[in-house]
Every structure is written in C-alpha cells, then in structure tokens.
Amino acid sequence: MTVPGGITRRTLAVLAVIAVVFGSATPARADDIRDKQWYWAPLKVDQAQRITKGEGIIVGLLDTGVDDTHPDLRGAVLPGRHMAQDKPGRNFDSVGHGTGMAGVIAGRGHGGGRGVLGIAPRAKVIPIEPINDTYLVAQGIRYAVAQGAKVINLAFNTRDSESLRAAVREAVAADVVLIGTAGNDGDKDNEPDFPGSYPELLTVGAVDRKNKVAKFSNHGEYVDLVAPGVEIPGPAPGDGYVRGNGTSGAAAIVAGSAALIRAKYPELTAVEVVDRLTGTAIDRGAKGRDDYYGHGQLDLLAALTAAQPAPVRSSAPPPATDAPAAAAVPAPADAGGDGIPPLVIVGAGLVLLLVALPVAAFLIVRSRRAGG
C-alpha cells in the first residue's frame, strides 16, 4: 500500500517506526468541544470524578510529544524527554497525536466548562518521544518507570523485539499498569500490533456510539477490553482541537480510567487494577470473553465502586527467555537499521497522510513484513 508521493507504508514504518498521525479534516470549535465528548454519558465520567480526579498519579505517555502550552493542558504535563536526542524537553510534539492523547487522559479544560476535560483531570502526564526504533521505545518505557509513572500508555505499533519485551517485563515487575492498542487494521489485514498484543499489556479495542466494535478495530485473542474510540475530541498543538477515530483514543480513555483507580485505591497492585477494569466490564457480543470485545466494554463507574472482582487474567509473570535482559538491549548504533533521523519522515508523513484523508482519524503507521 502506498500514500501520495510513492512513499510506501512500510517505508514510513521503517523510517519512523512509531510515528502516529492524529488528524482531522475540520478542526472542532473550542467553545463547544466539551459537548462533543459524547462518551462522558455512557461512562458516567461526571459521577466517577466526584469520587476521584486522579490526583497524585503520573501517566507515562510514549507518543509524539505534547504541546503543553495548549490552554487545556496547562498544569497537566510534566517535563518530558526526547529519547532520540537523549535530552529533556517541554512543549514539543512532532505530529500532534500525543497532544490529543494527553487531553483525553488528563485535560484540564479552561474558562468555565470550555475545552477538553480528561478522564483524570488531576493526574499528570509525562510525555516521552521515542521516535524511531525499538531500543528507544524500550528506553522510553524505562524512563517513564524511573519517573514514577503508575500507568503507561503505549498507543503505537512498532516491530517486535527482545529489547522491547525486556522493558515491558521490567515495567510489570515495577507494578506499572501498561495500556496498549489493539490496532486499526481490523477491516484490512488485522495483523497484531506490538507491543499491544503482548500478554503483559491491557490491550484496548474501540467501539462506536452504539457500542459496536468499530470496523477498523483489530480483533484477536489479545484484545482485553473495549472503550469508545470513534469521534473522540482532543486538543491539537497550539490552541485548536480535532476529533478522531482509532484504538488510540480508546486506550487513552482506559489509561485515564486506570489513573482514577490507582488514585482511589493506592494499595492495589497493577494486576488488581487491571482486574477491576476487566472484571467490571459490560459483556458485549458473544457471551463471555471474545476476540472482538475482549472481556467487555469499559464501565468506569463500576470499576471505581464495585467490590474487587475475581481475577480474569493470569497474573503469572511471562516465561523467561534464554537470553538475559541486559544482553537483549542493543546499543543505539546496532538498532537494526532504525536509527534514521527522526523528524524528516514524520513531518512528511503527516502532510501526505492528511492530504489523503478526508475524515478524522487516528492512524498508526504500521511496520510491515518484508515484501508486505
């Protein structure tokens, strides 16, 4: 498959492995954007926020960065880090996707009911931009853990690697809730996302306003939960807004929900937080767990108020690999050809994809197999 200009999706994936586009053909108006957050009613977000707003919880956001000057994000964003440049950073977003996700998770809104209000508006987001290879993604996960993140949102698709798996195992050992996306190719090849399909992650698919799994939402045995992921508003770099479709938006809603649970029940382990989210989910589709809805659709208020449910997922650690974790992490120079300057293709990909798309979308640039 190609995008305008003859650049294949595989080329974009190799040169900017986790680049994610958060685009909209028509920016949403600032004065009515709160009304566009349609998922608040079915999730009973207003009632949930009377219980907790996520105070004291840090959410690691591995994405395209965050523009923390947006009015809805002032006070919500901690200093982040450019992994490719190995330096701290603030007020950066190479594409715009991360800014949108930060708003869905922890947006503050502004001006008496205006702007996007996140699921956990008193949580803090730490933006980490790993950009272009699995070594940097792995290091970004480790950085988020070191900065005290209790929840990490991984709304992208990259290639599978032992270095990435090792970092995920370390985050699990550190008692961090890891949220991943099911992917946006459900109506195409439906190839699993990485790290979203790892068993250690809580993998989230998307549903629409009618509680139906979105056509684009990947399906498979790795799907754990679904949440709203269609026409989700978010802040855009500067002071604008967009609305988009994708499992990224659904994952951000679940990440904010996990932050609320961690704030309400600080004694719970990460596994117990996940059990609350999956064990209280509304069963949809085929009875019991299925490959489209997973354990069901997010019920935020129930996850915050119900008695601790019985585990629905195994809490056993993943099997050890033959190679030690330290040996599995390559030096940056040996990153398998992914060490391309990160910003050039990301920017070009954004322009080309926005020209090609007449509707709002969260698009994950997917890594393809050779010849795919």
Automatic annotation (TrEMBL):
Cross-referenced Gene3D superfamilies: Peptidase S8/S53 domain (3.40.50.200)
Signal peptide interval: 1-30
Domain called Peptidase S8/S53: residue spans: 54-296
One Gene Ontology MF term: serine-type endopeptidase activity
Residues annotated as catalytic: 63 (charge relay system), 97 (charge relay system), 248 (charge relay system)
Segments traversing the membrane: 343-365
GO process annotations (BP): proteolysis
PROSITE patterns reported in the protein's UniProt record: SUBTILASE, SUBTILASE_ASP
Key words, A-Z: Hydrolase, Membrane, Protease, Serine protease, Signal, Transmembrane, Transmembrane helix
Family matches, as Pfam families: Peptidase_S8
Region annotated Disordered, chain positions: 311-330
Family: Belongs to the peptidase S8 family.
Protein name as catalogued: Type VII secretion-associated serine protease mycosin
Species whose genome carries this gene: Actinoplanes digitatis
